[in-house]
């Protein structure tokens, strides 16, 4: 009997439709920040898709969308999925591929009337991109959130998580009720684009992920003195921009001396205040995101950034402060899932690369509570978090079929 396979046309059609929600024809990118109207619209679209297929779906107290074949009570599930929230002006596949592939797996199970020992559940985890710091949806499921964090969390523009939850029809104080029992998850496998250049370089269609990079996110403030751009002598300024510029020039040295080839330091958003051409900026607020696959290296990077920023503040007569929005440790994947994915890839005659993930993923949290693995498909030229993020459809088909085979093995 031939083994069931995914239907690429259905997968493609769902990905293209979902891409329209939050799509900007100017930038050709999609923006669905966690708990914004576009994100909520995408969640409703997903629930409708599950229900149109005769499946059951709901949004839990933390804003995760969860879909299963039926709503009969279950003690344990084999889970899959990813996220449908995006960065600003993101691409078509980051997160959405894992969710839509999970929906397609449910369709294949139903149309082939496959009987499973353990039910499958597909998750679109809420707020994976860390608008408010961390990965809130999956962290709520595994019990990592506190009421204090929920009530104080805000985004880089000062928008409170609490308000966005209410605007999304969720009760901030019920978010913790999303927590599931520790043995609810039998295992979890996430299909995701690599978002980096490795698979495209080695020309292999599949990545088998061994570990996921850690990531910390700071909001840094350098506070000096606004002053007249014409009269203030250069040596009498407390110019916040010059402090940032000085730090920017130190980033590569910090990585050289404290980091590894997997280390990353990124300043993604900068706010100069007051922001007038004729005024020396008295304040700069910027995001600083540090990453590495090794926890000690990540800590060394953070310590060095703090030291360098303190020295720069003294040199430029500035005040330095920072807020740590999140610190997510690097996380190894489970050996048994890594081995299973490799075995199934061999069974499908798919060449694969065993590799770490430079990007963060929901799987790095799921791995704390259950056997977890990730399957990568190539990102062309390694581009992601940008409109020209792209993956060949035939690679998507290979990755989705490998996910199908792996989940069927885990659930049978
Ligand atoms: O930024 C990341 O690594 C992930 O996409 N949240
Ligand atoms: Mn992302
Ligand atoms: Mn992602
Ligand atoms: Mn991610």
TrEMBL record:
CDD domains per record: M20_bAS
Residues passing through the membrane, by range: none
Presence of the UniProt keyword Coiled coil in the record: no
Pfam families: Peptidase_M20
Single GO MF descriptor: hydrolase activity
UniProt entry keywords in alphabetical sequence: Hydrolase
Superkingdom classification of source: Bacteria
UniProt record similarity statement: Belongs to the peptidase M20 family.
Protein name: Zn-dependent hydrolase
Organism of this sequence: Alteromonas ponticola
């Amino acid at each position: 009997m031939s083994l069931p396979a995914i239907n690429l046309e259905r997968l493609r059609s769902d990905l293209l439709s979902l891409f329209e929600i939050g799509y900007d024809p100017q930038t050709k990118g999609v923006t669905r920040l966690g708990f914004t109207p576009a994100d909520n619209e995408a969640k409703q679209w997903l629930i409708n898709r599950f229900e149109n297929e005769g499946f059951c779906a709901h949004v839990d107290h933390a804003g995760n969308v969860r879909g299963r074949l039926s709503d009969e009570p279950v003690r344990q599930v084999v889970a899959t999925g990813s996220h449908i929230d995006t960065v600003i002006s993101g691409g078509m596949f980051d997160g959405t591929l894992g969710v839509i592939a999970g929906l397609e797996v449910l369709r294949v199970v139903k149309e082939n009337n496959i009987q499973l020992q353990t039910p499958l559940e597909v998750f679109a985890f809420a707020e994976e991109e860390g608008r408010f710091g961390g990965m809130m949806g999956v962290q709520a499921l595994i019990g990592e959130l506190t009421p204090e964090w929920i009530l104080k969390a805000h985004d880089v523009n000062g928008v409170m998580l609490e308000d966005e939850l209410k605007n999304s029809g969720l009760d901030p104080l019920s978010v913790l009720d999303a927590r599931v029992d520790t043995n609810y998850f039998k295992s979890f496998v996430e299909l995701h684009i690599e978002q980096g250049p490795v698979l495209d370089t080695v020309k292999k269609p599949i990545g088998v992920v061994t570990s996921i990079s850690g990531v910390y996110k700071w909001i840094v403030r350098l506070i000096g003195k606004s002053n007249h751009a014409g009269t203030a002598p250069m040596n009498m300024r407390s110019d916040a921009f010059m402090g940032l510029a000085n730090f920017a020039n130190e980033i590569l040295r910090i990585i050289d001396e404290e980091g590894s080839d997997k280390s990353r330091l990124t300043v993604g958003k900068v706010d100069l205040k007051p922001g007038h051409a004729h005024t020396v900026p008295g304040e700069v607020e910027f995001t600083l995101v540090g990453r590495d696959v090794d926890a000690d290296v990540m800590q060394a990077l953070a310590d060095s950034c703090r030291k360098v920023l303190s020295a720069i503040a003294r040199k430029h007569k500035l005040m330095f402060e920072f807020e740590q929005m999140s610190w997510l440790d690097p996380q190894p994947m489970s050996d048994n899932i890594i081995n299973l994915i490799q075995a199934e890839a061999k069974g499908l005659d798919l060449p694969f690369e065993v590799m770490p993930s430079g990007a963060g993923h929901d799987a790095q949290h799921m791995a704390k509570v259950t056997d977890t693995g990730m399957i990568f498909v190539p990102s062309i030229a390694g581009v992601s978090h940008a409109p020209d993020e792209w993956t060949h459809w035939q690679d998507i088909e290979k990755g989705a079929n490998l996910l199908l085979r792996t989940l069927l093995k885990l659930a049978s």
